[in-house]
Specification:
347 residues; alpha/beta; Ribosomal Protein S8, Chain: A, domain 1; Rossmann fold; 11 strands; 38% helix; elongated
Length: 347
């Protein structure tokens, strides 16, 4: 099976006059790959070779497939990145992981990082594989920034995760919390966030207290349902093993034997953040997630409790800080470009 991408193949473009001087032309390369488990080739290549085409288009290479053999041709650096991406795709499938367009896009982005090799399989220098196992899936890093963050989630007491939306800050924290709850490492999972409206007034919300606060906590429910069967989520919420509540409900409590997550922490005041952090109890872990550039605290002139806490606590033993950028966005690639555009305007 051999295919041509939408644009011309390297063989065709080679006959044209290059816009680069001879000394500046990118060095070209051609390599071959083979894969042991032929049962994984169909999901690896994708329907109508869609996965291979995605790699071709993103990296500017030409890939031809014959049986279990792949041949990659193009600029030397791009060929190396394509090889690493395809190997990571194969390793992901071998571990039973899903391989969709978003996962491939993330692996392509990570192929430019020196840390890509060994992320999924682990190596002697970096320790065991970086992954989180839950009832519904096993999660591996999808961006370079997620690698150290996932290691922090497994070992540090308090972690501040800072960065734009779509980088997996809250999702990975919830996944780690679910994993530890299932394994019995903690007895409770507590998810919280400030009930602050994002620049708009929603007015009176009908219903009881749960009905009033649930709209603010919906992203946390979504992450839970992705990591655990819905019936188990509901059962554990009913039993008190999982608690989802606004930050105001944390006052006066000591959160022991718990994995505690505070989302949208940039919308806490300094007083709220201090109150929340001092709830920390024995055998607990706490993750504080937020985007310092998206503060919606009423009044506009109050300092974010998240920024204040990071400034004061970043060098305290037992506390880790993980910073994400637009390069770590794992939603649709256009989301990363949107974040970059807004960051460039300083707004």
């Amino acid at each position: 099976m051999a295919r041509k991408p939408a644009n011309q193949s390297p063989r065709e473009t080679g006959s044209k006059v290059s816009p680069f001087p001879a000394a500046a032309r990118p060095r070209r390369a051609r390599i071959e790959m083979s894969f042991e488990d032929q049962s994984l080739l169909v999901p690896l290549f994708g329907e109508f070779d869609a996965n291979l085409v995605q790699v071709e288009n993103r990296l500017g290479v030409f890939i031809s497939a014959r049986g279990d053999q792949l041949q990659i041709e193009g600029p030397q650096d791009s060929v190396a990145r394509a090889r690493d991406t395809l190997q990571a795709m194969y390793d992901r499938l071998a571990l039973g992981q899903d391989l969709d367009a978003g996962a491939i896009e993330s692996l392509i982005a990570m192929s430019n990082e020196p840390t890509l090799e060994g992320i999924i399989s682990g190596d002697k220098d970096d320790g065991p594989p970086v992954m989180i196992r839950t009832r519904r899936k096993t999660i591996v890093p999808r961006s370079a920034g997620q690698i150290p963050y996932m290691r922090q989630l497994a070992k540090d007491d308090i972690i501040f995760a800072l960065g734009p939306a779509g980088t997996g800050k809250t999702y990975l924290a919830v996944a780690q919390a679910v994993s530890q709850l299932i394994s019995g490492s903690v007895q409770r999972l507590i998810l919280s966030r400030p009930a602050v409206e994002a620049g708009e007034k929603l007015g009176f919300l009908p219903g009881d207290m749960k009905d009033k606060v649930d709209p603010y906590l919906r992203p946390l429910y979504d992450a839970l349902f992705d990591c655990m069967p819905p019936e188990q989520v509901e059962r554990r919420i009913a039993s008190g093993e999982i608690e989802i509540a606004p930050i105001a409900f944390m006052r006066g409590r000591t959160l022991a034997d718990a994995f505690v997550i505070l989302d949208e922490a940039q919308n806490t005041t300094r007083e709220q953040m201090k109150m929340f952090l001092t709830r920390f109890g024995q055998n607990s872990r706490m993750v504080i997630c937020g985007d310092p550039k998206q503060v919606d605290i009423p009044g506009g002139d109050r300092m974010s409790g998240l920024a204040d806490a990071v400034t004061k606590l970043e060098n305290v033993e037992g506390i880790a800080v993980s910073r994400f950028t637009s390069a770590d966005v794992v939603r649709h690639p256009i989301v990363g470009r949107i974040v970059e555009a807004y960051e460039g305007t300083g707004e």
